[in-house]
Amino acid sequence: MIQQQNEKYIFVTGCAGFIGFHLSLRLLYEGYKVLGIDNLNDYYDQTLKYNRLEILKKDKHFTFIKGSVENLELLDSLFNQYEIEEVIHLAAQAGVRYSLENPHAYIQSNLVGFANILDCCKQHQIKHLIYASSSSVYGSNKQVPFSVSDRVDQPISLYAATKKANELMAHTYSHLYSLPTTGLRFFTVYGPWGRPDMAYFTFSNAIIKQEPLNLFNYGNMRRDFTYIDDVIESIYRLIKKSPPIDISPPYKIFNIGNHQPVQLHYFIQVLEDQIGMKAIKNFLPIQPGDVQETFADIEDIVKFIDYRPKTNIEDGLRNFVKWFKEYYNLS
Prior knowledge:
Layout: E1 9-13, H1 18-29, E2 33-38, H2 46-57, E3 62-66, H3 72-81, E4 84-89, H4 98-101, H5 103-123, E5 128-134, H6 158-177, E6 181-186, E7 189-190, H7 199-209, E8 212-216, E9 222-223, E10 226-227, H8 228-240, E11 251-256, E12 262-263, H9 264-275, E13 280-284, H10 299-305, H11 313-327
Parallel strand pairs: 1-2, 1-4, 2-3, 4-5, 5-6, 6-11, 7-10, 8-13
Antiparallel strand pairs: 9-12
């Protein structure tokens, strides 16, 4: 453990989630005090969230609050009680397809919750708010790679619409109150301790159980898979970097991707090789809200933080499958 650097807290929302867990681990390792909040909802297997949390709780510099960002009274009390320097807002209702079934969950968590975070950051003069957006804001954009300068005003899922709304809300607070904000458009993050609702997780489960796995758009998809370690390194460097106070308004958006889209058929082939079993494939039409390809232009952030993702899909999936087999006690 590195010597404690700062008595102030970094506030990580969604700390028991996939990215929030890994980021909190990294911050604790680097000597930061972390205040984490998570509502531990049942969108996916809660056991995984509790197991992540148990690892974080082993560090004395980690403080956990069970609660929702939609609860403004709770948030305000935390900002009053703890000396928070920066906020990394990762709590959200995730998933494109689930937004078709349960739209109100997205309105509450992604809009009301984000508005609460913004207002608390303004009231308490937070040094920097870094928040999760999503590559889904690009919708069915045909121009690749996707650039942060592209128009993103035609979302094709409610989830994407809420993430674009977050960017607009952040811009407003940056403009009106000089609150430094940085939005991160994540591109298909994967790796150990990942989300069970993500394709690589469900595919692995199906291959091992020899159950059919659904390939939408008949498998003709390309995704810019981004390994969790590269994502965390990027966020950590943004935290270490001075907030965007040299521009007016103090507002930035970055793509967090690998800049190497992978054909879904090859992705499954790599999974099969790592697991040592063949997949049973069920080919289906494209689903509402899905896009055929994601591809991140990352030159802006590479220049800004002097870091380019290093993990290829073969190494990343090897690490994931190793964890997957160990976690679920699979031979």
